[in-house]
Design goal:
Mean pLDDT: 84
Helix content: 10-25%
Low-confidence stretches: 5-22, 208-212
Radius of gyration: 32 Å
Distance between the termini: 140 Å
Number of helices: 3
Strand content: 25-35%
Structural class: alpha+beta
Oligomer: single chain
Order of helices and strands: HHEEEEEEEEEEH
Number of strands: 10
Strand order of the largest sheet: 2-3-9-5-7-10
Shape: elongated
């Protein structure tokens, strides 16, 4: 009896790592394993989005061929498009994050961004996948939030900005976590639009408060030109009389 209980405990412990990514308390995403479904059959906490939205171009559903658990989210582009499952999450300013997950790409046309994990509004993508031969592949990308940034929207995606793709991919166990250091050889992308300021040459800068406006000089020039023209006209008339 004792041996049977011990075997059951060992079997239960072996299952823990398989669900660690989906159940991690550090994961900021809700329903990261797409297990909880709404009345429409799609994962609760996620919404669907696409560049081209007319019917028949992209499809969203869940499949029971999951990395862990019972379901995985599937994005299928029947034509060239950028389509994604998305979720907006509260984040801290000036903080580094890791977006990661498992992806299975199925016969995606070798064009565009393929299947990837990415961030809304910026040109930041994980590695692109086009065909994984039925195997789940781990993807990750690291990013840094802005000094006043309080949220970020993550994409489980087929396609990208100016990188539309055609084909199908499944996504599972997506995670967004705070990290304090980067793996060797990896750098964090800016998860925000970098503000640029046009440089002004100090020698050419003009103080708008002290510089004299130019329009009075235009008036003076115009009056002088009119007087000169009048004098010239009168001189020509007198010469003509004599």
């Amino acid at each position: 009896m004792f041996k049977r209980i011990l075997l059951l405990l060992c079997a239960a412990l072996m299952l823990v790592p398989a669900f660690a990514a989906a159940e991690s308390p550090d994961n900021l995403l809700s329903n990261p394993g797409f297990e909880d479904l709404g009345n429409d059959g799609l994962p609760i906490g996620w919404y669907t989005d696409a560049y081209l939205t007319r019917e028949g171009i992209s499809a969203f559903h869940v499949a029971d061929d999951a990395h862990t658990g019972g379901f995985a989210a599937v994005v299928e582009n029947l034509d060239m498009n950028d389509a994604r499952f998305a979720q907006t999450v509260k984040v801290k300013p000036n903080t580094m994050y890791r977006l990661s997950g498992w992806v299975k790409a199925d016969d995606i046309l070798d064009a565009g961004r393929g299947a990837n994990l990415s961030i809304e509004g910026v040109y930041v993508f994980s590695e692109s996948l086009y065909e994984t031969n039925g195997e789940w592949t781990y993807l990750e990308t690291y990013g840094l939030t802005d000094s006043d940034q309080t949220e970020v929207t993550v994409f489980a995606r087929v396609g990208g900005y100016s990188g539309e793709s055609m084909g199908k991919a499944a996504f599972d166990d997506i995670s967004l976590e705070v990290v304090t250091e980067l793996p060797a050889g990896v750098h964090a992308e800016a998860w925000y639009t970098i503000k640029t300021v046009q440089a002004i040459d100090a020698d050419e800068a003009v103080d708008a408060e002290t510089a004299a406006p130019f329009w009075p000089w235009l008036c003076v020039i115009a009056v002088a030109y009119a007087v000169a023209a009048l004098c010239t006209s009168r001189s020509l008339q007198e010469d003509h009389r004599t």
